[in-house]
Structures are given as structure tokens and as C-alpha cells.
Amino acid sequence: MGNRISLCMIVKNEEGNIRRCLASVTGVVNEIIVVDTGSTDNTCKIAREMGARIYSFEWNNNFSDARNFSLAKATGDWILFLDADEELAGESREVLVKYVADEQVEGYFIKIINYLGKEGWTETCPDLVFRLFKNRSQYRFRGAIHEQIADVILEKNKQATYRIAEDIIIIHYGYLDSQIDQKDKKNRNLHIIQKEMVENPGNYLLKYHYGVELYRAERYGEAAEVLIQAANNTDSSTIYFPKLLRYIVLAYHSGGQPAKALDVIRQGLQLFPNYADLHYYGGLSLLQLKHYHKAVELFLQAVALPEQPPQYASFAGVRGFRSLYHLGEIAEVFLNYEEALRYYLESLRDNPGFQPALERIIKILKPRENPEYTRECLEKVLDFSSPQATLILSNIFFQQGAYKLTLEFLERLIRMGNSSAEILFRKSFCLIQERRFLEALRILNEYTADSYIYPLAKFNQILCFWVQGKKRKVRSLVQEIRTLEPAEDTESILRLLLRSQEKRKYVHRIFLGKDAVTLLLDIVGRLLYLSELTRVEELFSRVDPKCLGDRMLDIIRLYHEHGYYEKTVELLQEYIEANQNGEAHFLLAETHRELGDFIEADHHYRYAIELDPSQPRYYISQSKLYEDRSEKIKGEVPLE
């Protein structure tokens, strides 16, 4: 007997989580105690269906009081406590009984895997939590929030022994953005901790948790200050001290203070030389400071480190795909695309779902200019057979303006059975970019006023007819879309499209807001892809140039990306008269080089280096210019 397990929980409005949680322990625990603090949804109904005993508790902003109420109702020999947004991993079910059979142990630390981020794009962070302990009346939680019991057990029982339950894993979904936003966890936790700190000003564990909550609330300066106070008053052998150090680093790093982050990292590595997260964030801080070679050293050290102990709560990928990705980024800074591809591929091998690495690989392959070559290269390293992979690739191609490849992959997706409204709309978009206007219009005409895509469909119909010079159709469709009361920025662009059809040379120029300028640049990029330079000029001739000032370099880049080099030179020369910056001179140098003008290219590389000497690609590009020039001269020298 002696090994009955009681699951104890406190809940409120958890109908979206509780069934999953209780299903994970069904048949493993002997009783389920659910203390409800005021649910107004179906939480209690679901819990009752799953075999739980339900008790009501009036919430008093104190998690320990609610936890202790649940313990008082438990009859088992051991307590397992979970939150509703957690579950016991499937492989842990069979081994739980083995651990509670050990009479020499008073409690266990269990590995928890925290899922962070957005639904569909998540990261994992492991940690150690004290969740399994013997049920004794003197063992009760302490603290209004981030409640503790491990310390209390040791106070009550000096001989108590703890171990790590190596084979048990809890999965936690509560740090997903949707969960945090839904429950307003940040503000709730801060309010409770602030009140608790007034009552316990010398509790540095509480200060640590307060600093973490400040960090999550993006109050980075305050977080760093509070966390440093906690660190200065906490023994470095404390189980959470490595995490405390990392949060100080994160606060400085996120707050734009990489030098201070590096100071903490140097001190931290003296205590924990194999802590991969410190090496990784050291690399990021050095990268932020443009100390590239030192950053490479730290990222490589992170990759070479052994498996991290659970108490480090190491973020997923710091010893793999994340560090490899940044090594690829640094290789790109030095224009070493072969090495960059190697690192990005290694990053993908370590985590096939790490999309940023795939995006960089595709960008290097230049899918718009080289669609066939891009496809051939990707086929060697990726499996295109699944709908998910096909969708991801179509999204990346679309983002990078490779409309021919996007269309190809969208059609594959449709053949696989995905012909959703979004997929068909994107297909129509790409058909316009490939000048297949009739096919595009057939799709766009299918959207009705009750579809959320309808306004976008109408706008693309307008653009389709506008490119073809069909003025009456454009005017008619503009009137239709105006009945939907479009946003002010959309209305500005509609007015601009109408005015650009007019023959009058002298017209009042339209001033566009920031969002309208962004929409205009999207249209300009599409027009340049279609080689509609004249229409681009028509648009710009009717826009007040004052509203384009902040985006002028982005406009120039669009001309450059689409091969309009003479126009790029003309605009850059005007831009540089008013804005002396290294990036503009570098782009002008690159353009002159593409036009075969060695002297002007060299001239502007020199200016770029003088204005921003921290950019390696300026030096490397100039060096390659000399090499190319040297080879050309050798080729021109007649043989005797």
C-alpha cells in the first residue's frame, strides 16, 4: 500500500486545458483533487467527467493558501501537483509508481519542458521543478506567488532527502503567448509579487521571481536592477542561480546594453564554464557590438559543449541550431556564402522546423533570378512531398518575391487538396505577377462580400486592370471598394491610382501616411517585377516627395533589386547630396560595379569605408573589385 498518489490542482477557467491535463494522469494517480477558485466556464464540469473531486475556494490572491487547501483534501501517500496548462508526458506514466516506492526519498525534482512563443511557432526551455513529495500534514506551501514547499520540508525534516526523477517529464504550455495574453499573467503576477515583497522585503527568491516577471513585461532596466540585487544576496550553489544569471544577461541584452550583458557573462562563466546559454548570449552580444571574430568563438564553444544539466534550464538550440544559424549570419557579413550555406544547412539538420535558416538558404540561392537552380538545390536537401513543407516553401518564395516558384508550389499544394481561400488568393496574386491576368481575374471574381478576403480581392482586381490601362474598369471597381469604407491609407492609394490615369501634368500631389507609403512600396515592387517602369514613374510623379523621405533608400533598393541600375545611380546621387551614410555609398559602389565602372565603384567603396569602418563587406567588396579588375587587365594584355 504506501504508494497511493493524489494529484492536487488549483484551477480557474481552464476548459481549454484541463481535459488534456487530466487525461495524461488517468490510471496513474489514485485520486484527483481539483480546487476551483471561481471558474465561469465548463472547467468543473469537464474535471468531474474525468473523475475529479471538486472543491471551491474563494480566491484571495494567495497561491499557497489555495494549494494548501488542496493538500488538506488529499488522502494519498504522495502528492503530485500539476497546473491545468501542463500534462504528464506519455513516457512518464509507467515510471511514476517506481519513484514513489522509494521510502528513503521525501520528494523529487522533475524535469519540465516549457513551450514558449506563438501557436505553430514554438520553442522549448527545460527546467527543474519540485512537484512530487510525501503527503505529511506539516508540509505546506509558503508564498503568495511562486509558492515553495521544498524549503519548508527541509525546515520541518532536517533529514529529508531529495532526488531528481530522471524519467519523469512534465510538459507546460502556459508560456505560449496565447495563454499569457488570455490570462493576463504578466500583470496578475506582478501585482501579487509586489504586494508580497512589501511584506517580505528580504526574500531574495521572491526578488528573483519579481525580476523574471519584470523581464517578461519587457521592463528590462528594472528587471536587471532587481535581478542583480537578488544575485548579490544568493549563494551561487543555489539551484536556480544559473537561471538567475541568465535572466540578468537577457535583461541587458533585450534592453540594448550588450556591454553590460558581457560583463555578467564573464563573471558567470567563471562559476559555470560549461553553461551553453552564457556562451550563446555572449555571442549574440558580441554580434550586436560587431565584434564578429570573438562572437564566432563563443558560438563555436556553445556548439561544442556537452549536454546541459537540468538546473541550467538551457534554451533549446543554444548548443545547436541557434548558434549555427548565427555563425551563418556572420559568414554572410563576410560575404562567404559557401560557409554560410554550410552553417544554415547544419542548423536545419539539427532542427528541421527552424524556418529562419531555410529562409536564409533560399535568399542566398536568389530564387527570383534563378528559380530552376533554387529548386534543384533545395530538392537535394529537403523533402517536398508533405503539404506542410510545400506550404512553408511557398510562403518563403512569396515573401522573397519569387512569384514563379511560389505559383509552382501553390499549384502543388492545390493538387494535394489544399484549395483554401488564402491559397487561391495568393495564386491569383502570383498570376498577376506573371501577367496571366485573365486567370487571376477568374479567381478574384469568385470572392463574395461575406469573405474576409473580398477587399483584398477587389484591390488586386483594380491593380490588374490598372496595369492593363483599363481606366473605366478601375474607376468602377474603386467605387465598389469605397462602399466598404476602406481605411484612410487604402483610400489614399486608391486616389493615387485614379490620379495617375489622368493626362494632366500639373496636379496637386498626394501626401501619404506611413502605412500608405508601405502599401505604395509594395505596389512599386510588383510593378518593377512586371517591368512597368513608366507606371512607377507615373505614381511617384503624383506623390508629395516629403512623405517619401524616410523610405527613399528602400525605394532605391527596389530599383536596384530589379536591375534598373541607371535609375539607381541617379536616385543615389540625389540621396547622397542630403544623406551621407556608408550604406548609400556602398549601394552606389555596387551599382557602378554592375555597370562596369571600376573607378566610380572604387570611389564609393572608399567613402562607405570612411563613413562606416565597422562593416566587413565594404572592405571585402572593394578587395574583390581589385581582384576582378586585375583579372580583366591580365586578359587584355596581348601575349608576345
UniProtKB/TrEMBL annotation:
Q: Name one Pfam family in it.
A: TPR_16
Q: Which SMART domains match?
A: TPR
Give any GO molecular function from the UniProt entry. transferase activity
Q: Mind listing the UniProt keywords for this protein, alphabetically?
A: Repeat, TPR repeat, Transferase
| Ranges: TPR repeats | 321-354, 582-615
Q: Entry's InterPro entries?
A: Glyco_trans_2-like, Nucleotide-diphossugar_trans, TPR-like_helical_dom_sf, TPR_2, TPR_rpt
Q: Write down the CDD domains for this protein, in alphabetical order.
A: Beta4Glucosyltransferase (cd02511)
Which segments constitute the Glycosyltransferase 2-like domain?
Answer: 6-126
**Protein's recorded name:** Glycosyl transferase, family 2
